[in-house]
Amino acid sequence: MKTRLKITLNSPAVLGFAFAALISLILGYITFGQSTKLLFMTSHTSLASPLTYLRFFTHVLGHSGFEHFIGNMSYILLLGPMLEEKYGSTKILEIIAITAFITGVLNYIIFPNTALCGASGVVFAFILLTSFTGFKQGEIPLTFILVAVIFIGQQIVEGIFVRDNVSNFSHILGGIVGSAVGYVLNKRS
Question: 40 near 98, Cβ under 8 Å?
Answer without folding.
Answer: no
